[in-house]
């Protein structure tokens, strides 16, 4: 037997990393901005615990395009690196300085928001650059260092004369990646991935009008304002997005503003929001919104966005957010969701399952409190939210368990019942021969108008259940409530209901009714229609002709052996 060590040479691995590390080349920018953010947050932490005796100030990160030079610059004012640290952190592929930092400052830095963890992010630069330079000056009193690498495993490291603290990364953009020198492209990427990162990111400048009141000496001109244009840093991100704040510090208006910030094209206000905030047994923050249902397909494309430490990761939250909440909007942010794993891997992850269950529970709790705090308002929103919730009842057992608290069953005349209230309301006179409670419902108010009127005449409650998945829901409710049966208002069952009070029933005797029916049946074409007698003193039609009734009669006929 022979044992040995597989010989991995960097020459072979490097091109693989370049090619396959990430299938999306554009994420190089996310990675480099994340590193610049980490470097700044680390410095913030070190100054706060007194380990770095420098002024933290108001550091920003700058992204700059040099189109002629075909270079992209990323400049931060973070903690920088000494030459020794460059050797340690940059020259060792798959060694994460971020993880090392978090390990070292375990207790104090766990909430510092540091992003990196695979030790591979930096190398994503080589997906778009033929050469990368790092010019960096540590906050420690040591000379600056200048590292250069052209994508082969050889690098050079020399001293540099950089004097300001921080790191500048220079990407020499490769010929096949020149799109990353376009201003609109970089702006698009920064907006997509970095819009809510915690350190301000400058990309160019913009003109800002500032108001200047004219002197008060001339009364007439008092009201006039002069606008002067000044050039200011163009900061592309909001470092303190709403979800990172405490719910008590946010007003309704703040939540709506944040919704518009997330989805600038959505003009309708959301119906309500759910602020998620948990740090045990996993870490998750976020805000989910129930949107007003939009007919606009473009707007429906706005999805829940997933972040890790304020870095955008994806808007495919399949497996993380329960499927029935797919129509919701908003953000979730969790460092505990494994990325870079397949969807099926995600589903198998126990944290992810817990997160999904947590979201279900929070949504159910919020619905319950909305319902109990302001029932009228909740009823008004019902039409916009019912599909999501009904689908939730069918697809998510944990949600179904809680749904009795807030799921509503509207009647044709806009009264809303919970299931318990409904049962209460129909015990009086809606039972069938087997003693089951019969829930009458219409699926289309206009088409079934006549039947609805007749049922109402008889004093029956008729629900309006018109969402597309209602038949599944009914099945579920019937199988879980043995004493309940749902009957559509135009079906043949309605005449089988047993009323407690018989007063309004037809004045004809049974025999007379039979005779009348026989007469009527001779007139209408038997093959397609059937005849049903109604109470003669009713204001509704004295008899109705229905098709479903024909089916019932056919059945009775076959049962009685007739033909
Ligand atoms: P990770 O972020 O997972 O640690 P990266 O490959 O992205 O891995 O970066 C490797 C290390 O290089 C970082 O942990 C950090 O120590 C160092 N580094 C990268 N960029 C910077 C920067 N802008 N300023 C200071 N250090 C940096
Ligand atoms: Mg990183």
TrEMBL record:
Belongs to the heat shock protein 90 family. Keywords: ATP-binding, Chaperone, Nucleotide-binding. It comes from Flavobacterium paronense. The keyword Aminoacyl-tRNA synthetase does not apply. PROSITE patterns: HSP90. This is Molecular chaperone HtpG. It comes from the Bacteria. Pfam families: HATPase_c_3, HSP90. InterPro entries: HATPase_C_sf, Heat_shock_protein_90_CS, HSP90_C, Hsp90_fam, Hsp90_N, Ribosomal_Su5_D2-typ_SF.
